[in-house]
Amino acid sequence: MTDRFAIILAAGKGTRMKSPRPKVLHEIGGRSMLAWSVALAKDLGCKRTVVVVGPDMPQLSVAAAKLVGAENVVIQREQLGTANAVDAAREALKDAYGNAIVLYADTPLVPKEAGERSFAEVEKGASVCVLGFKTKLPNRYGRLVTTGDGALEAIVEANDASEAQLRIELANSGVMAAPAKLMFELLCDVKNDNAKGEFYLTDLVGLARGRKLKAAVALCEEREVQGVNSQAELAQVERVFQDMVRERMMVAGVTLPAPETVHFSYDTKIAAGVTIEQNVVFATGVSVEGGAAIRAFSHLEGAKVGAGALVGPYARLRPGAVIGKDARIGNFVEVKNATIGEGAKANHLSYLGDGEVGAGVNIGAGTIFCNYDGFFKYRTVIGAGAFIGSNSSLVAPVTIGDRGYVGSGSVIVEDVAVDGLAIGRGRQVNKDGWAKAFRDEKLAAKKAGKKPKGAI
Ligand code: UD1
Ligand code: MG
């Protein structure tokens, strides 16, 4: 296959975001928009990906260097237009023999298939391929001017378009593929004699046609190429992403009684046969195996949920939580960096942090793993089949042996033996008639107007 390269434009200032964070570092589905574009380039098999940033964008340059390597981050000195931005990659790609695709870092949802279709046209012989979409009018997108037989002739920016051209419903997404050498050659001929006085990348189409070269269009859906310029558009694109994942999940056999209330991340993995109830949030790094159910109002991040497990309602799984097959994590239970064994249960009001809970363990309501002394963290290990009575504090580091018992209300500071029992609480004392005597004495004092010492 011909080598592929990607040029990602990220030099725009993004002033309309009104945010101290560079625009393309804002996230969709838990991943920065820039990382989305880089991931697309990678999925398309690009040999090198160059990111074009503006000057004075140190935070963005560092983030881009982490994703593509510092040698692939180039600076566009002045924002003179999209053609000028692509031109900034000329030196970095001087040895690029193959085809290049231009992506906008603020357009995160371009599907791999759309990129494939764009490259495919060039691989089949087109000199330039533009990813276009059918759109509702009016809008400010560049218009794809085609001939009677549907061949692409030129792109006209809305600002420069005639009345007739503004009625064209085929719009430019901004994604463009071309042989790399030809792209940089044509860029030399781009002028800025247009309404905005900018160097337009879109002029490459007219320039290619001027040389009698073939220009092609690949098609995609409008929502896949929706760009982000403001916080409101960021939220809109997030909504598009969420809708796309929800659709994909349901097609793949995930049961979502109220899909519009469930929030996914770009890397959420849910197996067929899982039910996810209302108002569940999947932050990044979560996988759920078949037959499990995530009940309403749960929040999961960096967690693995095993087959048949039941999580929630109102559960919180934090990074490193690994919930075993058929385990139960109930309401107001928080699990962090802890493995919960097969069939184990923690049904109510617990904090299980930095631990290992064996198979079949029962954790009573209100159990707390005291994992932190203010300086260091320690582990709690509970052997298979153990029973932890309600309202117990297990002060780590501590181990409860297999099948061991902990009496309710205990503060456990020492290990408990296999098959042993530990009770760590004050012994109960019963005094018959005490309450009546106490009441009589206090009532008598009140009647006599005598306050006990210290009373107010
Ligand atoms: C561009 C297209 C238009 C298309 C639209 C789709 C051109 C001339 N026009 O218009 O046909 O319908 O996108 O959204 O290409 N950028 C730089 N440096 C620059 C200028 C832009 O890096 O000097 C980056 C921006 O950060 C942005 C992208 O290029 O990510 C597109 O630039 P923008 O100014 O938004 O172009 P549009 O006017 O929207
Ligand atoms: Mg734009």
Describe it:
- This protein has 456 residues and is an alpha/beta fold.
- It has two domains: 4-225, Spore Coat Polysaccharide Biosynthesis Protein SpsA, Chain A (Alpha-Beta Complex); 231-422, 3 Solenoid (UDP N-Acetylglucosamine Acyltransferase, domain 1).
- The protein has nine helices and 32 strands.
- The strands form five sheets. It has an 18-stranded parallel sheet that branches. A seven-stranded mixed sheet has the order 5-4-1-6-10-7-11.
- Helix 2 (58-68) links the parallel strand 4 and strand 5 (73-75).
- The longest helix has 21 residues, at 231-251.
- The radius of gyration is 31 Å and the shape is elongated.
- The relative contact order is 0.07.
- The model has no long low-confidence stretch (mean pLDDT 97).
- The structure holds uridine-diphosphate-N-acetylglucosamine and magnesium ion.
